[in-house]
């Protein structure tokens, strides 16, 4: 009954944001999608310090997480806009921060997007073991679920609070952030475009421990990328990646639903400036930015 109620609330939210609710070609299995369900109505972001770069405002924001803390990050958007914006949420890699994608967010805001880049719950956590990646199975799993929920709520806030077009939403995830980005895009049918940068197909490492397999093996990135369509997917891989093996990105590409493409760069795990330029150009095209 609780799961059905949450589903009805989500459908109501999507209908309010854009008329007829969109749908996935091949939705995530109910047993898995239920792991990420949470109340989606009513959350809003509080704004803090603001700075101006040309015609773009970059604002510190904070909004409620479904976990015990708050999500922190930045919103970048045009100072004046006479039309509904596209919306993009960015998820950084392990041990990094929301500021990592500020350059991308600002560049897209200049083209008419409203962009949100958030701090992962893995770096926000007061638990040192979570921050260092040495926590027990259950709290680590719960933090990953929270990370996905933070992204989903971020999409809601872009639409409800900042006026983003629910038919022109995108998610970008880098390295450790690729997994929650892919799961969020597979779960939310409003997401039109997804960029996954140098991420593992099997972040779980295919553990032998039954409990670890039950928790983490079930939410490996590779098991959700076939649920993306009609979301359009860009994979960005590094030819000389010292962190992510070539085979992991190739596996993601093979498993993913169409439409998709993979691009390789003459770079290490950081990918470099060419990937940055191409990522922005691809998002501008997919989101119909001016």
Please explain how this structure is put together.
The chain has one domain: Rossmann fold, CATH 3.40.50. It is 36% helix and 24% strand. It contains ten helices and nine strands. Strands 1-2-3-5-4-6-7-8-9 form a nine-stranded mixed sheet, with helices on both faces. A hairpin with a 2-residue loop joins strand 1 and strand 2 (56-64). Helix 6 (137-160) crosses helix 7. The longest helix has 24 residues, at 137-160. The radius of gyration is 18 Å and the shape is globular.
Write a brief structural summary:
The chain has 290 residues and is an alpha/beta fold.
- Helix share bin: 25-40%
Secondary-structure class: alpha/beta
CATH structural architecture: 3-Layer(aba) Sandwich
End-to-end Cα distance, whole Å, is 45 Å
Our count of domains comes out at 1
Q: Detail the poorly predicted runs.
A: 1-19
CATH homologous group name = Alpha/Beta hydrolase fold, catalytic domain
- The CATH class turns out to be Alpha Beta
Average pLDDT reading? 92
The shape, in one word, is globular
What would you report as the Rg, rounded to the nearest angstrom?
A: 18 Å
* Count of alpha and pi helical runs: 10
Order of secondary-structure elements? HHEEEEHEHHHEHEHEHEH
Strand percent estimate: 15-25%
Number of strands: 9
Strand order within the widest beta sheet: 1-2-3-5-4-6-7-8-9
């Amino acid at each position: 009954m609780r799961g059905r109620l949450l589903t009805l609330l989500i459908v109501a939210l999507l209908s309010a944001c854009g008329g007829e609710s969109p749908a996935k070609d091949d939705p995530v299995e109910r047993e898995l999608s239920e792991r990420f369900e949470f109340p989606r109505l009513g959350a809003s972001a509080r704004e803090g310090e603001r700075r101006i770069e040309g015609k773009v405002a970059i604002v510190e924001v904070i909004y409620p997480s479904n976990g015990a803390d708050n999500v922190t990050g930045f919103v970048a958007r045009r100072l004046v806009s006479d039309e509904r914006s596209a919306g993009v949420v960015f998820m950084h890699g392990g041990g990094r921060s929301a500021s990592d994608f500020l350059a991308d967010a600002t560049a897209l805001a200049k083209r008419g997007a409203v962009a949100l880049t958030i701090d992962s719950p893995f770096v926000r956590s007061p638990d040192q073991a979570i921050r260092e990646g040495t926590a027990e199975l259950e709290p680590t799993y719960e933090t990953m679920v929270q990370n996905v929920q933070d992204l989903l709520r971020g999409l809601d806030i872009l639409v409800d609070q900042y006026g983003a077009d629910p038919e022109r939403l995108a998610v970008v995830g880098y390295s450790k952030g690729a997994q929650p980005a892919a799961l969020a895009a597979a779960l939310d049918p409003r997401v039109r475009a997804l960029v996954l940068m140098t991420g593992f197909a099997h972040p779980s490492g295919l553990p032998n421990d039954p409990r670890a397999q039950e928790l983490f093996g079930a939410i490996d990135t590779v098991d959700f990328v076939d649920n993306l369509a009609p979301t359009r997917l860009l994979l960005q891989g590094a030819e000389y990646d010292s962190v992510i093996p070539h085979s992991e990105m190739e596996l993601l590409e093979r498993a993913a639903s169409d439409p998709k493409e993979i691009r390789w760069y003459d770079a290490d795990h950081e990918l470099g400036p060419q990937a940055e330029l191409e990522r922005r150009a691809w998002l501008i095209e997919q989101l119909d930015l001016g």
